[in-house]
Design a protein that fits this description.
The chain is α+β, with helices and mostly antiparallel strands. It folds into three domains: 296 residues, no CATH class; 110 residues; 57 residues, Arc Repressor Mutant, subunit A (Orthogonal Bundle). The protein has 16 helices and 17 strands. Strands 1, 2, 6, 7, 8, 11, 12, 13, 14 and 15 form a ten-stranded mixed sheet that branches. A three-stranded antiparallel sheet has the order 5-4-16, with no helix packed on it. It has a two-stranded antiparallel ribbon with strand order 3-17. A hairpin with a 7-residue loop joins strand 9 and strand 10. The structure holds adenosine-5'-diphosphate and magnesium ion.
Length: 483
């Protein structure tokens, strides 16, 4: 980003996010959806908009949408309305999309998030509404002079989350999107996969001279299927608009397509107004009524939100913000952590449990989606070390057995003869003296200044105690005895 541009202009960004709800069936008919399935196998007459079919609202989709509204603190309408949004496109079988227009089910709400430097922001939402997804045009890239249409995606339930134009940098936009995605995942209503299109973002960007309030003319960018694309496209567009204004021209309101390969936007269509869509209330569906009692019962199902979880992990277990954030972004691992701490029933070991998880288990979880050690076993292992019954070094050996599928750390440690640590005095001192007596040549070398001989003695002690001695204490003891 050219800093001179930002000195003169203030960017203004508002985001529209479409999230596919991971319901068992589609928005208005009982057909399932999965990504990447053979084209046109997840369809029925309703999906295809055949004459004589009627839509029926998916109760689960409404429940998911309401949970989102509750999570972001939006105002839920007890009676909202579906509307037809007309446009012609081959992937839209009915020639209109069932959406919500002037009476969306949710208005207001906020998304809170943190920037990389830890500062918190909150972005107000304009509205959230429910609608159905379109199909997908498939353009052959082998020079064929026709395109095909896959209707599998048509009719998949979507929520569209529209933010107010209150963000001012690409970093804020990405922070907002990541937080929103984590909320969707925490609620279990959308997998938030940008590459597969289950979460899609359109970025609206304008700029205005610094110090002024009136919003500039916006452009809307589509096809942003990664956080990097969102960031790159916004920065590109800020600079492009600045160049237009500097040139004494005006920005033209348009919908643009981001081309990640060329790092540029190109015009898809200029200015379209709501009236172009000829919205009217959907005559095939009654007004959508969401009873207050149902909303209250759904409120009980809204889990702790990501930022609240992060804050609690820090205050309750004294985790660092960095570690707490990793847990926040890997919910299953966070739940595993809290199960371990509960089983250990000693708040003081929470940080140690977190360290084991983050250094030894997180990688496997990321690769396989599974945590290979039972919570009870990790808790028991940490308690053995904490109680002085197992040295940190030997704990690693026991842990590798757990990783390999064995169980019960105490029994494993006993079987391997690792249980019980050798005290730094008494037994250990006798052992060191014996080793010194048995190895006069090494002692001679040490006294002549070859101090690395110390490593030999430490190694012998470890061998003799099967790693049960504390290496630092042994080193100190040997130094004293050899002096
Ligand atoms: P449309 O469907 O016509 O794009 P929406 O109301 O769905 O309209 O979305 C408009 C989006 O554009 C919102 O996210 C809003 O915050 C944003 N927006 C509106 N005006 C501006 C502007 N001048 N600069 C930047 N963003 C804007
Ligand atoms: Mg739009």
């Amino acid at each position: 980003m050219n800093p001179a541009v930002l000195e003169r202009y203030e960017p203004v960004i508002g985001l529209e996010v479409h999230a596919q709800l991971s319901t068992a069936t589609k928005m208005f008919t009982a057909v399932p959806y999965r990504f990447g399935v053979e084209p046109n196998t997840l369809i029925d007459p309703v999906v295809l908009g055949l004459p004589g079919t009627l839509p029926v609202v998916n109760r689960e989709a409404v429940a998911f949408a309401v949970k989102l509204a509750l999570a972001v603190g939006g105002r839920i309408r007890n009676v909202s309305r579906f509307a037809r949004k007309h446009y012609f496109y081959p992937d839209l079988p009915k020639g209109y999309q069932i959406s919500q227009y002037d009476e969306p089910y949710c208005e207001g709400g906020v998304i809170e998030f943190e920037l990389a430097d830890g500062t918190r922001r909150s972005v107000e939402l304009t509205r959230i509404h429910m609608e159905e997804d379109s199909g997908k045009n498939m353009h052959a890239d082998d020079g064929a002079n026709f395109s095909l249409v896959d209707f599998n995606r048509a009719g998949v339930p979507l929520v569209e989350i529209v933010s107010e134009p209150v963000m001012h940098s690409a970093a804020e936009a990405v922070g907002y999107l990541k937080a929103l995605r984590q909320i969707l995942r925490t609620l279990g209503i959308c997998d938030g996969n940008l590459e597969e299109g289950s979460m899609r973002c359109d970025a609206n960007v304008s700029i205005r001279p610094r110090g002024t309030q009136k919003l500039g003319t916006r452009t809307e960018m589509k096809n942003l299927n990664s956080f990097k694309a969102v960031s790159d496209a916004i920065e590109y567009e800020i600079e492009r608009q600045a160049a237009v204004l500097d040139d004494g021209r005006g920005v033209m309101q348009a919908t643009l397509l981001w081309d990640p390969a060329r790092g540029q936007t190109k015009v898809l269509r200029t200015k379209e107004e709501a009236e172009d869509y000829r919205y009217f209330p959907e005559p095939d569906l009654p007004p959508l009524s969401i009873p207050a009692a149902w909303i209250e019962s759904l409120r009980g199902q809204v889990p702790e939100l990501p930022l609240a979880l992060k804050d609690r992990l820090i205050s309750q277990y004294q985790l660092t913000p960095y570690d707490a954030e990793i847990f926040m972004n890997n919910l299953e691992v966070a739940h595993y952590f809290e199960r371990c701490v509960t089983i250990a029933a000693q708040p003081a070991v929470a940080k140690k449990i977190a360290n084991w998880i983050l250094t030894e288990l997180l990688g496997t979880f990321r690769d396989t989606g599974k945590i290979p050690v039972q919570a009870g076993d990790l808790a028991a292992l940490v308690l053995l070390v904490e109680g002085g019954e197992l040295t940190g070094r030997n704990a690693k050996d026991v842990f590798s057995r757990l990783l390999a599928g064995e169980q019960d750390p105490r029994a494993l440690a006993a079987k391997l003869g690792l249980l019980g640590s050798v005290a730094a005095d008494g037994e250990l001192e006798a052992l060191c003296r014996r080793l010194i007596d048995d190895n006069p040549a090494q002692v001679e070398k040490y006294r002549k200044g070859k101090t690395n001989v110390l490593g030999f003695f430490v190694g012998e002690v470890m061998k003799a105690t099967r790693g049960k001695a504390d290496a630092a204490a042994v080193t100190d003891l040997l130094k004293t005895l050899l002096a």
